[in-house]
């Protein structure tokens, strides 16, 4: 339904697809003899090297994932470890030599446009090197020094981990008297500020797309595609039969009916009423286009899960399961829609008939949904203490950092609710102003681009992507993002500028090969060693070596393993 906006226009080029296109061409095209090795040979060599190398950070030498040398130099300094820890601190000076860690949260840096990398870098530097240090050390914003500077945990006012079981009813709802007795919930400063950046990112996305792409969207909405510039791919695709829109409407209606049926039959279990389900679908419909425009042009996907959970948290406070379900049907529906649109653009590049793509996507979704559910069920039943950080080996691959943050979000937005944390009198109420700030920031950029049209760099200033430099932390760490930025800068600026022929021939193939080799070794390590409980324990398997980075620095806060300040 959004093909005319996000697939057909030449401006919507979906950078991530270029790596897949390069891989398919390397595998299937016969190359004419040219200087240097073929792309196929290059792919196989790099994939093999990546496969063998990942045994080091993935099993033998995990410290390569977070190489925090600052902590070795100052092993007894809390401040130095807060600054230098790649796992629990700001990660200044830390780096990772693990491709899985580099590409885990923002995707492969080799396929991101240089302008996108630069925007993310500006936001990251502002956030990690300026805003967070000022809020923590100078102003003690949100009682920041009572807690670790960076953590995905929830805390009490005394700096200890928040025990959510003490405020839950047997029906998984908020026990208000127990909450009032136990006390308020607090976040680590970086976590709280990252949530605030999500507020700004959402409104900035809407404003940016309206100002910079609104005219194109309106023109295409009026069926004026004949006046839109079509690239060679779009012209060639006109020879295939398009997928009728009613095919998509059948899927949409069927999905909505089944979802509504679930909300009626298992009403007490899912907590989300039928109107909440429709609200989630409506919200997804509204935001998919503006988010898709950003992703299709910058390779960065501004999330709106915080906004979705914020809204339903006000409407249905004290209902954590309803909050999570609303996020799934709202945010995750958008993620999958954009994934399908990206696949359609891939078919666009590869000249695959749209109807074949439709069938492949439908079959793939059914198979993936079934397999994913079965694998998740098997893992929960067979992997001991999965996602239980307190009971697992520190270097275990099953600590589930993403799902820990998902759990935190269900507590923040669903169980306790935004009114208590972000409403009048709430500890984090001032963060709500970032909605307004985010909506305003793209305006001066747009005005400058109109005043100085000859300055082609001004429209490249992308406020939603700049705010993406704060995004996803946690579960991402500053080291993940910093290493992503450095890698992207090396290849998409220096290599592109000084070895352009090499970049054109091998860059995207390199990205695909690194992904493939790492993935294959990851699967092998799990089934051959980690699933059998065969874990190593030596200096190189102890990630980070920064035990003091998680310590609070406020006077009188006593936490196990940390000194108490007076």
Proportion in β-strands: under 5%
Query: Mind summarizing the main beta sheet?
Result: 2 strands, antiparallel
Number of helices: 24
The computed structural class is mainly alpha
* Gross morphology: globular
Strands of the biggest beta sheet: in what spatial order? 1-2
* Count of domain modules: 1
- What is the typical, i.e. mean, pLDDT? 87
Low-confidence region ranges: none
Family: Belongs to the oligopeptide OPT transporter (TC 2.A.67.1) family.
Membrane topology: Multi-pass membrane protein
Keywords: Membrane, Peptide transport, Protein transport, Transmembrane, Transmembrane helix, Transport
Transmembrane segments: 42-75, 117-139, 190-212, 246-266, 272-294, 358-380, 431-448, 457-473, 479-496, 508-529
What are its keywords?
566 residues, mainly alpha, two-stranded antiparallel sheet, 60% helix
């Amino acid at each position: 339904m959004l093909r005319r906006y996000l697939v057909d226009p030449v401006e919507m080029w979906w950078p991530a697809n270029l790596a897949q296109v390069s891989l398919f061409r390397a595998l299937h095209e016969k190359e004419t003899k040219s200087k240097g090795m073929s792309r196929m040979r290059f792919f196989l060599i790099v994939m093999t090297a990546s496969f063998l190398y990942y045994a080091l950070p993935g099993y033998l030498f995990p410290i390569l994932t977070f190489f925090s040398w600052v902590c070795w130099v100052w092993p007894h300094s809390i401040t130095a470890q807060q600054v230098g820890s790649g796992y629990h601190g700001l990660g200044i000076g830390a780096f990772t030599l693990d491709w899985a860690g580099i590409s885990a949260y923002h995707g492969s840096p080799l396929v991101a446009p240089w302008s996108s990398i630069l925007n993310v870098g500006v936001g990251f530097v502002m956030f990690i090197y300026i805003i967070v240090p000022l809020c923590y050390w100078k102003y003690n914003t949100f009682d920041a020094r009572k807690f670790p500077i960076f953590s995905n945990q929830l805390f009490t006012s005394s700096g200890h981990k928040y025990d959510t079981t003490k405020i839950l009813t047997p029906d998984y709802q908020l026990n208000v008297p127990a909450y009032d007795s136990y006390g308020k919930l607090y976040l680590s400063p970086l976590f709280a500020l990252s949530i605030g950046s999500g507020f700004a990112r959402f409104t900035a996305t809407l404003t940016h797309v309206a100002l910079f792409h609104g005219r194109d969207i309106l023109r295409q909405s009026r069926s004026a595609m004949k006046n839109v510039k079509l690239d060679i791919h779009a012209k060639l695709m006109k020879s295939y039969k398009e997928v009728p829109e009613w095919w998509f409407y059948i899927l949409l209606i069927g999905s909505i009916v089944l979802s509504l049926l679930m909300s009626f039959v298992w009403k007490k279990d899912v907590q989300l009423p039928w109107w909440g389900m429709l609200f989630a679908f409506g919200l997804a419909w509204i935001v998919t286009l503006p988010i898709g425009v950003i992703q299709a042009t910058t390779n960065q996907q501004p999330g709106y899960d915080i906004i979705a959970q914020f809204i339903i948290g006000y409407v249905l406070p004290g209902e954590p399961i309803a909050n999570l379900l609303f996020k799934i049907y709202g945010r995750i529906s958008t993620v999958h829609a954009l994934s399908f649109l990206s696949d359609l653009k891939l078919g666009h590049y590869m000249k695959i008939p749209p109807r074949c793509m439709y069938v492949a996507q439908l079959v793939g979704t059914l198979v993936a949904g079934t397999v994913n559910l079965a694998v998740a069920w098997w893992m929960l039943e067979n992997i001991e203490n999965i996602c239980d950080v307190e009971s697992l080996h520190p270097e275990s691959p099953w600590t589930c950092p993403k799902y820990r943050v998902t759990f935190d979000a269900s507590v923040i937005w669903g169980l306790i609710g935004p009114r208590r944390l972000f409403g009048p009198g709430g500890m984090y109420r001032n963060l709500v102003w970032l909605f307004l700030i985010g909506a305003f920031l793209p305006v001066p950029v747009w005005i400058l681009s109109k005043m100085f049209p000859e300055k082609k760099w001004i429209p490249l200033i992308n406020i939603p992507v700049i705010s993406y430099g704060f995004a996803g932390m946690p579960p991402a760490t500053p080291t993940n993002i910093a290493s992503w930025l450095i890698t992207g800068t090396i290849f998409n600026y220096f290599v592109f500028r000084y070895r352009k022929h090499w970049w054109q021939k091998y860059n995207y193939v390199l990205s695909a090969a690194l992904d493939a080799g790492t993935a294959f070794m990851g699967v092998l390590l799990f089934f051959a060693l980690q699933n059998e409980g065969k874990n190593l324990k030596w200096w190189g398997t102890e990630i980070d070596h920064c035990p003091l980075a998680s310590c609070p620095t406020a006077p009188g806060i006593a936490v196990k393993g940390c000194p108490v300040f007076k």
